[in-house]
Design goal:
The chain is an all-beta fold. It has one domain: Jelly Rolls, CATH 2.60.120.10. It is about 0% helix and about 55% strand. The chain is built from no helices and 11 strands. The radius of gyration is 13 Å and the shape is globular. The protein starts with 5 loop residues before the first strand and ends in a 6-residue tail after the last strand.
């Protein structure tokens, strides 16, 4: 099954594989843009940086990652990523992955 590219104010994403308890997607974040500070009630995530450089917030920890960086996000853990360069991130979500499972705390685009 082929999934459409979904545009967002910070870039875009495309789901590559979707199962009941897992999904895999590619996230592209523009240089200087960032996703909302958010958490998920029903899923945990792993991010892998494929290209570029990102700043992350996971819980109370801020870190910078380049190509090959791996970031683990627990269920209900606050997190955010920002593009220091145009960046591609592979996201693998476990649990009950759904786009509507987003609790936003802060957002640069008025969605919180």
């Amino acid at each position: 099954m082929k999934y459409e590219k979904v545009n967002r104010p910070w870039g875009w994403y495309r789901i590559l594989e979707k199962k009941e308890k897992l999904w895999i997607k590619i996230i592209f974040v523009n240089k200087g843009a960032r996703l909302s500070l958010q958490s998920h009630e029903n899923r945990s995530e792993i991010w892998a940086v494929l290209k570029g450089k990102i700043d992350t917030v996971v819980g109370n920890k801020n870190q910078t990652f380049g190509i090959g960086g791996i970031i683990k996000i627990g269920k209900q853990e606050k997190h955010r990523l920002a593009g220091l360069k145009n960046s591609y991130i592979l996201e693998v979500a476990f649990g009950r992955p759904r786009e509507r499972d987003i609790v936003r705390y802060e957002d640069d685009y008025g969605r919180a």
